[in-house]
Amino acid sequence: MFETLVQPLFMVGTVLAYYLLGDPLLVLALGFVVLTLLEWRRPYRRDWIQTRKEWLENAFFLIGTIFIFDPFYTWAYSPLYEYSIALKERWELSLNGSLSRPVQILSVYIVIELLFYLLHLAQHKLLILWRTHKLHHYSRKMMWAKYITAHPVELALFPLAGLVTSLLFSIEPDDEALYIFTFPLLVAVFTHSNIRTNPALLGWLFVTPQYHFKHHSSAFDTRRNRAVGDCNYGVSLILFDRLFGTFDPGTVIDPVGVQPRNELNLWQQLLTPFQHGWSTAPAREAEDQS
After folding, report:
1. Which range of residues forms the domain containing residue 145?
2. Is the pTM of this model over 0.90?
3. How many domains does the chain have?
């Protein structure tokens, strides 16, 4: 029962917490605390429990992403956002402006998810993008903070999706803060958490930890001649994986992560996009490790 209900309850709790607290950062902090407790009490794998060193690395990426890099890129992109909004007003351009508020929210959410799905797919298919995305796949252990483990250069790509939707769609600021930022982010964080879940009906529409664990597998499928992790690219929705044939519901296959035999320190991890040894395409790399 716990495995079936934990994810839907967490998702509903995210929405309720936003309406009660009204601050995305407070809701995120509360979500992180809940996931930490769940991983401690109900871990999917005990060998994925984090060491003190790993927690310190997680804290670096968590603090850096939320308080340094994300605000910096928001500031850097702000002139483009303002220009896109001015263009929308001048051209009276809004693909969902005449729709009801719930449909506005749903349309922007689906488009954002599609853009992130395509970006994530490109990050695994194009070597230049894989070099920065590979850091996210470094760890041999899954836990909720691994979603925030991203290279600072990679983070520069994420505001592009919001730039497109700000030009083409309309949405209320409060709705955007909850349904386009807080909710999808916490669902994506949940899918990285070391918690045992049963997808059940929820897995037909949303990404679950088991689906995403398989995406992080670095094994090679010799029968299909592709990396096992070449699947399940959705961020919070699994819908586009089902539509475009990249969905794979199978069980998690070890090893998870692309960490080399000689463990890298934090500084070496940050330098990985610029090193020759990390320039291999993901499919070839998985084959080399098998």
Report:
1. 2-203
2. yes
3. 1
